[in-house]
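Tokens in:
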């Protein structure tokens, strides 16, 4: 392929009532990044194209944008690779999703900064500085818990493709919660309670739909989705009764007592009478579709061989102190029983 089309999202609020797309025909050059292609179009064809950039080395996060529908860093991806990946001769470049565009590929960072301010994304020491004047020391195992999250460059790629944020603009979003986790899980930080209470407001931890788009799009492998799950675990460890924690407890009790979830009573047990009343129309539709058994309202029935399920669960509870749980396979951080650190185990020995 000798040439390709660079289709760029254009919008100037001072003169355009609606956004539009403008296409630039450019030569295919080996090693050319999408950012370099934008520069070529700007320098040789149209000097009015606006976009952010800085380091050109996938460090600063300034050049994040959507390319053929997915967020990434324009300086990190090469034109030839994308043309081959999508089997096309056209690359569509747009500003990141879920955030208001200001001009062309430049988007409104103030909206994101306002969300970040809520979780105070800076180190708040819980102890006075070391007397020897050196930095705050940390056990390598404790540091490993925040190693991935510390690499976030605030590029908003995860925010762009977050399906929950698309549905609810008040949701803090994966980047913000991931940044909160980085400090919540830091053994040296003293504002864990304050940050947890902030991310627990408005069901922020529950809004994640586990689509993993944020982790898939993250150019620095920060694992935003996994950090949301880790934050939920820490909240449970600290005694906060989140809807997810309550649901898990109800689920566990139902499986133990009857071998299956009682969906008829779940809303009342989890959200109370008022919460269940809000879901009544949905429950009525489920009933007429044959999805709900009215007998479940009175306790329902137990599954066959229910006693075997109880034996398995009893055995699992006996083994809980011996089981190491990994949050995600490719993470090196291991939570032992989700509540025990390697250091505590060594002290007990």
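Residues out:
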């Amino acid at each position: 392929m000798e040439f390709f089309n660079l289709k760029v999202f254009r919008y100037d609020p001072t003169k355009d009532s609606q956004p539009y797309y403008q296409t630039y025909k450019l030569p295919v050059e080996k090693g050319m990044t999408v950012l370099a292609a934008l520069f070529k179009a700007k320098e040789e064809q149209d000097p009015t194209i606006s976009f952010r950039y800085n380091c050109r080395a996938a460090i600063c996060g300034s050049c994040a944008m959507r390319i053929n529908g997915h967020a990434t860093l324009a300086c990190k991806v090469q034109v030839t690779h994308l043309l081959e990946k999508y089997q096309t001769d056209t690359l569509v470049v747009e500003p990141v999703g879920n955030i208001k565009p200001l001009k062309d590929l430049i988007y409104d960072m103030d909206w994101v900064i306002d969300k970040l301010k809520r979780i105070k994304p800076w180190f708040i020491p819980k102890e006075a500085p070391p007397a020897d004047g050196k930095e705050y020391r940390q056990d390598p195992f404790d540091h490993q818990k925040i190693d991935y999250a510390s690499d976030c460059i605030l590029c908003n790629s995860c925010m762009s493709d977050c399906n929950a944020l698309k549905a609810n603009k008040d949701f803090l979003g994966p980047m913000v919660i991931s940044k909160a986790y980085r400090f919540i899980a830091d053994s040296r930080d003293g504002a864990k309670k304050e940050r947890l209470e902030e991310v627990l407001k408005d069901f922020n931890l529950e809004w994640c739909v586990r689509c993993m788009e944020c982790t898939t799009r993250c150019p620095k492998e920060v694992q935003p989705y996994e950090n949301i799950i880790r934050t939920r675990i820490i909240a449970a460890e600290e005694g906060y009764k989140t809807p997810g924690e309550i649901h898990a407890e109800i689920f566990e009790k139902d499986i133990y007592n009857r071998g299956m979830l009682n969906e008829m009573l779940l809303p009342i047990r989890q959200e109370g009478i008022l919460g269940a009343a809000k879901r009544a129309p949905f429950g009525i539709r489920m009933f007429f579709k044959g999805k709900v058994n009215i007998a479940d309202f009175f306790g329902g029935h137990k599954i066959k061989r229910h006693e075997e399920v109880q034996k398995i669960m009893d055995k699992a509870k006996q083994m809980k102190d011996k089981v190491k749980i990994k949050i995600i396979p490719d993470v090196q951080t291991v939570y032992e029983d989700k509540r025990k650190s390697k250091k505590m185990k060594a002290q007990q020995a």
